[in-house]
Amino acid sequence: MRAGLKTVAKATIASLKLNELRWRKRREAEAGLRVLEAHGRKITEATRQRAREAAKQSFGHERHAPWLMLYAAARGGYQDGWLPESFYAESLMPQVNGIAHHLCRVQATNPIFFDSPAICDLLYLLNGRILTPQQVAIAPSEALERLRASGEMLVFKADHSAFGKGVQSVATRDLDLATLNGLGNGVFQTLLRPHPELARFGTPALATLRIATVLGEIGAPQIRASYLKIGQPGQAHVLARDQLRVAVDWESGELAPEGFHADWRPATGAQGADRFAGNRVPAITEAVATALELHRQLPLARFICWDFAIDEAERVRLLEWEGGVISFAEATQGPCFQGLGWPGLA
Question: Where are the domains of the chain?
């Protein structure tokens, strides 16, 4: 009897979570579509009907249509083969990434998975211990010495953080044992200075190059999307809630002439800074090669987004990695996931 009630309770909770996800994703797409239409990106009724038909035929339900409509509004026309963000989050991500989708939540796993000069981690705080990148536990006194020797300012990223939350700048002169104990699990990283080509966008937040890679059923990783994430003036770190994103040609590094704010307002440049057109991301070839090599070293999740900084010495530095979202990539560079044999896609 008790086991039966437990099963029913688990099923009820799972159903509630799924319904909340469906509601949230639909609301997100409809809100973005309204913003685009308010900026002159109205789509025709024929396009809406085409999206509804594709959603039902390819993805099993019309609730996925708003994302296809949003993509069409952002792109200026409909394209076959798009993957709705809602279908990815609801059905596809659990299949192609599974539990591996959450491996990135524990920062101390980085040196276990990766051997790369792009890693800029200094120390890990994990379950009351302090670990070096060599996975050696050290005393707090030694940790404080190492951190103070690494610079006046560092970055601390909490485990289980996402969307730019849980990231803070830390003055090493203020660090003490009580401060370390109060931070919880996470990683200390070097405070990076951006390459001059990326510093021109007029924000103290470090512009982040996101490169998305996939694994097919067999073979090596492949790149499928690339874009730059830019913070807002006055922000120390890029936050997903109000970031500005612009697509990047992963062969040339050229920025697209138009990007979009987090709420899908179009933009041709960052606030009070250069236009996107005519600018490029330095070291793009090295960044792409690094992303592909990192995914080769971690062939568990089939879709990974790698967030890089290009520092003032033009070195590629890994900030973090995650399963990510697909909406911006699909709208600006998609369809991104054709040829992989994933459900709903050719």
Answer: 2-79, 99-105+194-322, 121-190
> Which pLDDT tens digit goes with each residue over 35-56?
999 999 999 999 999 999 999 9
Residues contacting residue 313 through CB under 8 Å, at least 6 positions apart: none
**18 vs 24, which has greater pLDDT?**
24
State how far the Cα of 275 lies from the Cα of 273, in Å rounded to an integer. Answer: 7
Q: Between vectors from CA 184 to CA 178 and to CA 188, what angle results, nearest 5°? A: 90
Per-residue confidence (pLDDT) for residue 238, from 0 to 100 = 83
Cα distance between residue 248 and residue 241, in whole Å: 21
| Three-state secondary structure readout of the chain | CHHHHHHHHHHHHHHHHHHHHHHHHHHHHHHHHHHHHHCCCCCCHHHHHHHHHHHHHHHCCHHHHHHHHHHHHHHCCCCCCCCCHHHHHHHHHHHHCHHHHHHHHCHHHHHHHCCCCCECEEEEEECCEEECCCCCECCHHHHHHHHHHCCCEEEEEECCCCCCCCEEEEEHHHCCHHHHHHHCCEEEEECCCECHHHHCCCCCCCCEEEEEEECCCCCCCEEEEEEEEECCCCCCCCCCCCCEEEEECCCCCEEEEEEEECCCCEECECCCCCECCCCECCCHHHHHHHHHHHHHHCCCCCEEEEEEEEECCCCEEEEEEECCCCHHHHHHHCCCCCCCCCCCCC
Query: Quick count: other Cβ atoms within 10 Å of Cβ 126?
Result: 19
Structure-token pair, residue 147: 């951190």
CATH 3.30.470 for domain 99-105+194-322 = yes
1: confidence class by pLDDT, cuts 50, 70, 90: low
Provide the edge-to-edge strand list for the sheet that holds 129-131.
Answer: 129-131, 121-126, 186-190, 153-158, 167-171
